[in-house]
Automatic annotation (TrEMBL):
Signal peptide annotation: none
Pfam family, one: PTS_EIIA_2
Membrane-spanning residues: none
Name of the protein in its database record: PTS EIIA type-2 domain-containing protein
Domain PTS EIIA type-2 positions: 9-153
Length: 156
């Protein structure tokens, strides 16, 4: 029997960057794909990026409060993983809220884990309902704090 994935199963410490350089959506997506690629998560960076853009075409992944949850499902993903990134200056991103986006929680999902995506997105959404989580995500300088923040919230 397959158990549901938790944030702890998929978050990669090497895929947390609190000072990304991207200045627009394209650069953010590419920079986060690079984190996954360096971590050995992707068989094809380009095919994964294509999957992210396909999902972006379906509707906003910005959830408000300066946070977006872009993601892509693809055979190009070797192992489902999560990355967290933040920029110092907000970027324009299609969002359900108002204003620019500064924090990004991205999932790279293996095509075989389709049902897991809903569970993972739900775990992150629950965590991001907490104002303290949002505040920490937008202000902390500790990558370890980000790692434990989502693990703690993902287990509730």
């Amino acid at each position: 029997m397959v158990t549901s994935m938790t944030i702890e199963n998929v978050i990669k410490r090497s895929c947390i960057n609190l000072h990304m350089k991207g200045r627009n959506k394209k650069e953010i997506i590419e920079e986060m794909a690079d984190m996954f690629d360096r971590a050995g998560v992707l068989a094809s960076r380009n095919l994964f990026i294509r999957a992210v853009y396909e999902r972006e075409g379906e509707g906003p992944t910005g959830i408000g409060n300066q946070v977006a949850i872009p993601h892509g499902k693809s055979d190009a993903v070797l192992k489902t993983a999560m990355a967290v990134g933040r920029v110092d200056q907000g970027v324009e991103w299609e969002t359900l809220g108002e204003g620019d986006t500064r924090a990004f929680v991205m999932f790279a999902v293996n095509s075989g884990d389709k049902s897991e995506l809903v569970s993972l997105l739900s775990q992150v959404a629950v965590a991001l309902c907490d104002d303290d989580v949002i505040e920490t995500l937008l202000t902390t300088e500790s990558e370890e704090e980000i790692f434990t923040l989502f693990n703690r919230k993902g287990e509730t």
